[in-house]
User: Fold this.
Amino acid sequence: MPIGVLDLGQTPMPSATWQNALVFTSFADLLVAAPEMMGLYVVGGSAQGNAHLLRDWRNSPYWFKPLLFSEAGNDPGFSDGALDFIAAQAVCERTDALRQSLQVDPRTLQFDERLLYFLYLREPHELLPLRDRNSKHLYRYPEAEAIAPEHEDAGHWITSLARRELLQPTTLFDRTRHCRSCSSAHLHYLDVCPQCRSMEIHAGESVHCFTCGHVAPNADFRQEGHLECPQCQTRLRHVGVDYDRPLTRMACATCHHAFIEADVVVRCLDCGVEAAADMLDVREVRGLRLSAYGRAALRAGQLHDSFAALDTANYVVPNYFRLLLDWAITTQNRHKELAFSLVMIEFVNASEVIESHGAARTFLILDELSHRLREMLRTSDLTTRTAETMLWVFLPFSQGAGFAARVEKLLEQATPKNGGVGLRARIRHAESSAGLAPDERAASLMERLQSAGDASDA
Amino acid sequence: MLQDFFWTFSALMQSARETSWLDAAMKFFPYVLLLELPLLFMVSLGILRYGLRDRIPNRQHLRFPKVSCIITCYSEGNDVRKTIQSLAYQEYAGVIEILPVVDGALQNADTLKAAHSAADTFGKRKNRQIMVLPKWQRGGRVSALNTGLQFASGEVVLALDGDTSFDNDMIANATAHFDDPDVVGVAGCLRVRNNGRSLAARLQGLEYVLSIGAGKTGLSEFNLVNNISGAFGIFRAAFIRRMGGWDSGTAEDLDMTLRIKQYFGRHKNLRIVFDPHAVGHTDAPATWRGYFQQRLRWDGDLFYVFVRKYRLSFQPRLLGWPTFLFTVLNGLFLQLLMPFVIALYSIALFWVLPAGSALGILAYVYLFYLLGLSFYFGLYLLAVSERPRYDLRYLIYLPLFPLFAYATRVHGAYAILQEILLKSHLDSAMAPWWVLRKTKF
Assistant:
């Protein structure tokens, strides 16, 4: 699949610059042509214009595909980056490879799945928050908003995904306080009288008369330009000698309450609800990344098929697998040097495991197993799954017995340490070197392995 | 000398057996008996009356007035927390406003911090309000109390020390008296919290029990409470506001008590009550040196208040006859004059008689005192004490008490002399010198 190039420069570059690329000069043309492509590389254009382009791209059927820019100057931000053409091609290829490894149709996805899918294709990409004074929550996630369908609240979905642990928080950017009534972060803080909540409060100094020990507000002592004690009528001339000012007191003009520290109340600018400062909803604004659960949920198609985790290890669909096996058997009949083995792994207690650990956890166990399996396989080996819990491995030029033993060991390790039911599998293998029946076909060989008894060698 | 001692002692005992006790004692200690015996008799009668009085058990509260507790705080540090906690946890249905006034909040930053943290911890309780008042300028106890009074919004005001904590029924017991509109002040019963620390603290604990727990209970029956302690006084807020709050100078507690009593002549119904069951626990000096230093101030302040400040107020017209007579007898004679009599008597005894005989006489007087004391203590245990079991542990210290009281009295003479000659009240820890020198007395 080629990469698309959108050349918005004043003088378009010669098309020879873009090898194996589909070149367009306007986005409208591109949408009309609707070609198959891995991603779009944009040359030229203003950052502002490209911001619209980015929004349109994320709303198009290409929404999950990378959109890259030639220079940082024309990158509106929150795109897939500004890179040179070669690097951009590499990014697109990588994304496409990840897309192919996942048996998911991007057209059928709900919004929350779309977000997980978007992040999966860009792993280990992080959703970053953007401070925006126009946003009700002060921060928003522009990438998520771009792929959100209209009238969907991206912030709400992100909160939900994070709560379900499908997204995993990363760096802390800020801590915001929200109104408990409308969750707006546009608040303002007001000091009020702790008794009657009036805003009419004033600070005033007190005076302590040394002569009689009277303590009262400054105003009580003020007499036509000098200070005089209202209790003992002593004229107070010198601070520190005749009197001192022991403290500053606050007084409420509404209820005449005297106090030292005012209470702070918070008023929401959006809904007008008042609350105590310690009764606000405190939220953390963090970067977000796809979590292991999120990855799992996505691969499993919302956790329906936990065993789909195994399909990433050199997977081919069963029909191809059978075809290939047939070809191998036929070839082997003529050329004995084409030795191969076939290994069957049947997970026998799948439902038990799912019951014990839950689908998501099971998926993680299988995901881990498939990861290890992938490390054991050579690039020429192939796998398929004929039933939900039945995995087949085709190993050209190698012995199935050794592989089966290593899988057995792997299964022991994959058993959760904190107890619970461990995954058990029936492993059978057949080697071409052991001799095949003259009329052996893929179907009969696989059937023979399936029905083989406890004897490990079929 | 030893021979003299035994001869004198047995002769006195012999004479006591032949004549009446009173006769015998009169020979040696006329002043003691003339002045102190009637007082002791009256107090005992009061205690008896208190004990026998028909007290309605579990008296229902008519109302629960809002109470403001002004706590004067200095360098108590974390101890302030205990005080605030014991007030916040009072078993009282009304509102309690707690006002810790930290005098010299800059120097006493630890105390301020402790008060703030206690306010955060206990201020959220229902019907409890805590407002810490940081007084940046140190101005003495009076300025701290008057500052607190400025902020107090309760009907009843408590003046308390930062190193004093309270039984959880203290406020309920103390405020009950204010149902009577004639009650303007209530004196609380102080006990010594750290009485186990040393012998000095133990004997002070016993002294508090005898002079406050027992003594004031008896006096209260005749509306003659001598003093509302500065560490634990309870007042009707409107009344002391009308009086202008606390007056400058040292011994602001005795000053306040005397000023309230100056209304007794004109308003004969007014009362100051002592409640032995409104209990506070305070720290007493744990060393003898600390004890005598404290008494130097207290006894000196007696002269300052009674003579320097209020000598012109000793009129039946102002105080009413009972209070006038009692104050003259107790305040002027027993507290100011008696220490000199005792000191001079002791010196004369040793001057005139051989040492042995003098000691013999003193031993006889000691025995006489111990007997009276035992009776008095027993009466207190039976009629007054709210924790008799606890108080019983003071019993073994009773034989030491007459010696302790004797030493205190002799030292008192020295303290009063110092006040007379050196005006030591102007150099007090209760307020800075630059404030005290401005006072009128």
Notes: The radius of gyration of chain A is 36 Å. Chain A touches chain B through 25 residues (CB under 8 Å).
